[in-house]
Design goal:
The chain is built from 3 helices and 14 strands. By secondary structure, the chain is an alpha+beta fold. It has a domain of 184 residues: Porin. Strands 1, 2, 3, 10, 11, 12, 13 and 14 form an 8-stranded mixed beta sheet that branches. Strands 4, 5, 6, 7, 8 and 9 form a 6-stranded antiparallel beta sheet that branches. α1 runs antiparallel to α3. The longest helix is centred in the last third of the chain and has 34 residues. The chain is elongated and about 95 Å long.
Length: 287
């Protein structure tokens, strides 16, 4: 005659524990992904030194105040694409020996020139109202990223935009100790709603006697260099954060996917283990 051993009442309790553990893991996945998305996509209130260009009456979005600059290589393919609401503020000392600042908006249609022939360096130059703004783009040593290596602003102190000591040729550059601006993976476009500021001044060994200091303000910046697609369209976005660091937009998806896979494997493994454990208990209870 068969005698049944007392049933193992741990099974329902263990199953409830497994479900609770799975629910906790799912909650952690959702929380981590939510924190990443909120930390990098929530816009902070803007604080700017200037009022942007007045948009047209038919549009009040960011594109209405931002200017688009496209420079093509000799083969006709776009190599540098930039959209920005920009302003240049130049601080100088006037005839009354007072420190004043003259503001100059980056225009919609400057004269563009540059170089896109080299594989590791590209240059974009804008000329407008007697000013010449140049940006030098470079690739990282491994070729996987691009960045702006140098900003350079040249003009004459006789420029009517800010009357000053006439006849001085002013050349201002970004600091040499900040060699990487807007670092971005090759094939992607740098995107930043937060206002960026670049300071330019005369190098110590330049012999410049103007004493001018320029600040370049860049808002709603969308920019890409080393473009290789014939369509001339933006690559995937690479967003800046509110703290000025940089973040690939695919990061939250990758982290969330990895955690979801971990949860699935945990549940599947536990389910398989419990299945064989229960079968063993059922067979062992019969004598």
């Amino acid at each position: 005659m068969l005698k049944l051993k007392p049933r193992n009442y741990c099974i329902p309790n263990c199953l409830n524990g497994a479900l609770a553990y799975s629910a906790l893991l799912v909650f952690l996945v959702t929380a981590v992904q939510g924190l990443q998305l909120s930390a990098f996509t929530t816009k902070t209130p803007r604080v700017s030194k200037y009022t942007t260009k007045s948009p047209s009456a038919s549009s009040m979005n960011h594109d209405a105040t931002a200017s688009l600059y496209r420079f093509n290589a000799t083969n006709g393919i776009t190599c540098i694409l930039m959209q920005v609401d920009g302003l240049i503020g130049i601080k100088y000392r006037n005839k009354l020996n007072e420190d004043v600042e003259a503001d100059l908006y980056m225009p919609d249609s400057p004269q563009l020139s540059g170089e896109c022939d080299e594989s590791n360096m590209e240059i974009l130059t804008m000329e407008f109202k007697g000013f010449r703004l140049s940006m030098t783009f470079k690739k990282s040593s491994g070729g996987e990223g691009w960045y702006i290596n140098l900003f350079e602003l040249t003009y004459s102190s006789s420029n009517p935009t800010h009357p000053d000591r006439p006849g001085l040729n002013v050349k201002l550059t970004s600091p040499v100790h900040t060699p990487m601006y807007f670092a971005t993976p090759v094939g992607k476009a740098y995107v930043c709603d937060k206002e960026q500021k670049v300071i330019m001044y005369a190098p110590n060994d330049s012999g410049d006697q103007s004493g001018h200091i320029a600040r370049l303000y860049l808002r709603d910046l969308h920019m890409q260099s080393f473009m290789f697609k014939e369509t001339g369209k933006w690559g995937p976005s690479f967003h800046c954060s509110a703290t000025g660091s940089y973040r690939d937009e695919t990061a939250p998806l990758a982290v969330g996917t990895a955690l979801a896979i971990a949860v699935l494997l945990t549940i599947s493994g536990y389910g398989g283990w419990r299945y064989f454990k229960i079968k063993k208990v059922q067979y062992g209870s019969m004598e």
